[in-house]
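I have been asked to look over a protein record a colleague put together. This is what I was given:
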Amino acid sequence: MPSQCDSMTRSLPPTTMPVTEIATLALNPPHTWDSPDIQSFFAAVAAQQAAWSGYSLHYFQDTADPSVVYILTGWESVSAHFKWIESEQNQVLLMRAKSLIEVKGLQHARLESKLDGAEFVVLEQWTRGQDEELAHDVGIVEETPMQVCRIRVVAEKEFQTGEREGVHVLCMKRLKLADQDVVSEL
């Protein structure tokens, strides 16, 4: 996780723009994405969280490490997401998750990501300069305001995960549930 640069932190104006959740999860061995328990769990998460938030969940796999799964989805606000996290419904899912996954990280970026149909995405994150103007496709990371990120849809795997010129780059490939119809039934 990137660290916050306290000396450079400024207060940021409140926003009504949706935020993008970027959750980093590790699959616990011996589970893989294709394991029936994993498929069932993530289908339940997709159905229940989307019903709560009104946003579709998108699952991606780190192209450098297939045991790392990312959830990218929208929320009206960070506080709306935390209401979901604290809900009894989500707590039941988290209990079920204990033997399946480990939560490695959670961030929220002030940007709206359009990921329907995307097979590959690249997440770029960096520390912004004090006077850096932000492009329309760059969002501030809520938890570390001097960090910014961009999520780009790419046609094919074009980057490897790693650091390049001060920018942390994650390349992700879309993951699909074995039975997409299961999501609508849960």
Summary: The chain is about 25% helix and 35% strand.
